[in-house]
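2024-03-11 09:14:02 INFO worker-7 job=invfold-0412 stage=load source=structure_tokens
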């Protein structure tokens, strides 16, 4: 039987069973040395491991002539014990790669390696041969590496990048040097050294060196008291002419802070790191950071708010009262607060962020020194993001607009055509839009209509003739307005449609088709005079709740795949053309969702994906949503994309746990009936399936409650459980698939007599899951109502620790979870 798990109320620290655990040396170091500086020695810190973990030592040494790269990783590990092993991945002279690995559990600090001496000596210098090659070993670029004579027997010049990846290491090592054979095989097939994944890329030998950059976007609103923050991000490989960019902006109204972080690749010119204080506090303060760099991989490595935010001076309270708010929605009922002394005006406005996959309207209310709408002194450019300020939004009433979509194909003789739309209430600051497209091919015409709310600026009615060839025409109508309710009042094709003149027949015969299903076995028809080529392509229309794949066969006056004359956007609809379509492939929404918050089991949130993915033949579209709500905190994990062939069309909902305990439930859909069929827009697809019932009364049981994705549940908050709960739960769900990978750590109140939340299920939609208890919950000791927790009875207790490792995360000092975090990633 496992020992009873214990809790201490002094720091709300979660404890593992009272079993021995190792303490290991801990250090990660990567440094460049010369051969004359070897052996290299170091000291290390210490880390208390989880029960069952061992200690590991990894040393990797890459030598290239007089240069040596030394990488040391020492830490706790779950890997099996391994005797000390020295491996010569490539022997010199010239380039050489050698490593040392060791995993042990026999005693504390058994990973005691502290010098490169364990690897022995490097090969002695060789007799120079006739071949000369550039020589470089660097984390920066090697464009101007000097040439040196290669050792005798070395006949080829090597140019490549070694990528080293682990939880502790994200590093690229540029290598140029001499090898005795051609090819991209410096590592002789090695793919992993200790905890480090190693890979090789020799594309730089064919042209300019290609950078890797940190990449991702964070938008979140937090309390001022929660600063300072740090973050980590995924990485991407750039195009040949691109550099790395990063932009960070803080908007602070004295109570809350909006944090925007955006990183990635860019063609923009280099820009030295620059901090701009657009507006000083107290009151509303706005600060930004920007950099564009190319000097090395991952040069956009700014990862904390420390340089941007310092607590402003705290003047005494003044006499002015203003509403305080920073939110994407819902500042109408903001609370009034006392402004600091010296601030004389209330500000309310909207900051519009556009570009770089961001389209946000941020409502800001607070105290300022002067009147007006000029907090940022005109539009601001943050890398790919345009920031503008508008103080008219909050004064404008919320509009109501006509709403609806129409996708149909009819005969030309049925025109003009009329319709009646529905109605909707927009968000603050939104206008109404009308978009109509008419694609005519011979006697057929396709109508595509979308009406609704939009954040786009007003523009008058615009009718555009994208193509008007004989026998074929493509015309669009767009309009955005905010002058009155239901101003997007287009209800007929009459403004666009004028019957074309009767065309004189020519001599060319082409198949004629306009269809959303297919054009097989269509008869040939005589083309109008002036048409000299047959067209065969697919038009894809995406956006504004439109997802159409239109097959077009017909007559054109010139060859090529340019039916659209370069048109890419019509209102909210993106249009594209493909003249080599694969009829058996789907296009699916693609993206992942990671959202922390409160009451996510009650209040639906938006669940959309900004990207699309063309699947492999036979694949289906999928969307999967997993909700975990422990009471005061909730986590939503979502995924949209393609999934492997063989899956059947199916939609399902699973309720693994419902009140009075924790909520653990999931929604999934696999579909192939149409492009972009994985189109659920809100988490209400899951929430609407929950039974309606009054909240249970509080009981006497108290448990720590926490949910974290790729984070720890240290210092969990103690909560009162509802009546009907029987014990405390503490466990972890390993989750992979659909673009997400990590550990979900969970603590909370359990109503079921079962130990497991997922009842041994191994799949949730696209996710593969494996649940493990962090301790024996059948023996868990709930905290007594008088607040006294059981003690350790003299045995040594081991603090629970979970290593944080995720592609995109937010961290606060002390490991606390952010009060609110919403992250969107293009897998």
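2024-03-11 09:14:09 INFO worker-7 stage=emit residues=827
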């Amino acid at each position: 039987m496992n020992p009873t798990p214990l809790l201490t109320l002094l720091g709300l620290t979660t404890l593992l069973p009272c079993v021995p655990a190792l303490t290991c040396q801990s250090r990660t170091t990567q440094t460049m040395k010369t051969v004359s500086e070897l052996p290299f020695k170091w000291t290390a810190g210490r880390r208390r491991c989880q029960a069952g973990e061992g200690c590991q030592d990894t040393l990797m040494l890459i030598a290239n002539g007089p240069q040596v790269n030394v990488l040391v990783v020492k830490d706790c590990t779950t890997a099996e014990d391994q005797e000390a092993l020295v491996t010569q991945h490539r022997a010199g002279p010239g380039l050489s790669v050698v490593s040392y690995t060791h995993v042990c559990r026999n005693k504390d600090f058994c990973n005691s390696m502290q010098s490169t001496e364990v690897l022995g000596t490097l090969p002695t210098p060789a007799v120079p041969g006739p071949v000369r090659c550039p020589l470089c070993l660097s984390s920066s670029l090697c464009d101007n590496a000097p040439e040196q004579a290669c050792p005798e027997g070395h006949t080829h010049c090597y140019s490549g990048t070694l990528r080293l990846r682990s939880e502790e290491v994200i590093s690229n090592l540029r290598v140029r040097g001499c090898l005795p054979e051609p090819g991209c095989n410096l590592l002789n097939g090695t793919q992993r050294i200790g905890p480090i994944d190693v890979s090789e890329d020799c594309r730089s030998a064919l042209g300019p060196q290609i950078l890797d950059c940190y990449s991702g976007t964070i938008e979140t609103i937090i309390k001022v008291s929660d600063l300072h923050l740090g973050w980590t991000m995924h990485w991407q490989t750039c195009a040949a002419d691109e550099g790395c960019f990063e932009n960070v902006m803080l908007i602070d109204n004295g109570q809350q802070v909006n944090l925007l972080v955006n990183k990635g690749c860019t063609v923009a010119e280099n820009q030295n790191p620059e901090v701009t204080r657009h507006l000083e506090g107290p009151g509303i303060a706005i600060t930004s950071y920007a950099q564009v760099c190319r000097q090395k991989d991952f040069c956009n490595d700014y990862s904390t708010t420390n340089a941007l935010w310092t607590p402003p001076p705290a003047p005494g309270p003044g006499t002015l009262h203003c509403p305080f708010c920073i939110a994407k929605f819902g500042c109408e009922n903001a609370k009034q607060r006392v402004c600091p002394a010296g601030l004389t005006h209330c500000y309310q406005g909207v900051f519009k962020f556009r570009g770089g996959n961001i389209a946000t309207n941020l409502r800001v209310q607070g105290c300022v020194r002067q009147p007006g709408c000029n907090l940022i002194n005109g539009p601001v450019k943050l890398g790919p993001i345009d920031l503008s300020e508008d103080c008219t939004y909050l004064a404008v009433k919320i509009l109501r607009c006509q709403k609806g979509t129409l996708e149909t194909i009819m005969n030309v003789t049925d025109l003009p055509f009329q319709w009646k739309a529905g109605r909707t209430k927009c968000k603050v600051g939104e206008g109404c839009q009308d978009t109509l497209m008419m694609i005519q091919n011979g006697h057929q015409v396709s109508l595509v209509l979308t009406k609704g709310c939009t954040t786009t600026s007003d523009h008058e009615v615009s009718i555009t003739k994208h193509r008007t060839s004989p026998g074929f025409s493509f015309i669009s109508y767009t309009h955005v307005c905010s002058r009155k309710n239901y101003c997007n009042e287009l209800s007929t094709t009459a403004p666009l449609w004028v019957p074309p003149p009767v065309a004189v027949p020519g001599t060319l015969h082409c198949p004629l088709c306009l269809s959303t299903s297919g054009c097989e076995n269509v008869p040939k028809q005589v083309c109008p005079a002036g048409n000299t080529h047959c067209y065969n392509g697919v038009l894809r229309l995406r956006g504004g709740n439109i997802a159409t794949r239109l097959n077009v066969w017909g007559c054109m006056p010139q060859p090529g795949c340019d039916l659209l004359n370069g048109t890419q956007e019509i209102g909210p609809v993106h249009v594209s053309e493909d003249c080599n379509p694969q009829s058996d492939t789907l296009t699916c929404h693609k993206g992942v969702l990671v959202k922390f918050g409160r009451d996510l089991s009650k209040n639906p949130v938006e669940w959309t994906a900004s990207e699309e993915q063309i699947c492999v033949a036979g694949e289906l579209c999928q969307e999967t949503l997993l909700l975990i709500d422990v009471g005061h905190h909730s986590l939503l994990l979502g995924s949209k994309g393609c999934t492997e062939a063989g899956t059947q069309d199916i939609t399902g909902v699973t309720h693994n746990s419902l009140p009075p305990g924790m909520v653990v439930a999931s929604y999934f859909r696999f579909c192939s009936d149409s492009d972009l069929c994985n189109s659920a827009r809100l988490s209400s697809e899951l929430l609407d399936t929950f039974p309606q019932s009054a909240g249970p009364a509080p009981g006497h049981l108290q448990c720590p409650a926490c949910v974290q994705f790729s984070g720890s549940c240290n210092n969990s908050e103690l909560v009162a459980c509802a009546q009907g709960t029987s014990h405390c739960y503490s466990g972890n769900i390993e989750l992979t698939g659909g673009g997400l990978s990590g550990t979900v750590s969970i603590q909370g109140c359990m109503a079921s007599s079962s130990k497991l939340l997922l009842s041994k299920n191994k799949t949730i939609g696209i996710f593969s899951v494996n649940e493990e208890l962090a301790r024996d919950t059948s023996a868990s000791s709930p905290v007594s109502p008088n607040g006294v927790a059981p003690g350790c009875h003299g045995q040594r207790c081991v603090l629970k620790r979970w290593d944080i490792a995720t592609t995109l995360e937010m961290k606060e000092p002390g490991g606390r979870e952010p009060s609110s975090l919403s992250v969107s990633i293009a897998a």
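2024-03-11 09:14:09 INFO worker-7 stage=report msg="Confidence is low (pLDDT under 50) at residues 1-18, 776-827."
2024-03-11 09:14:10 INFO worker-7 job finished
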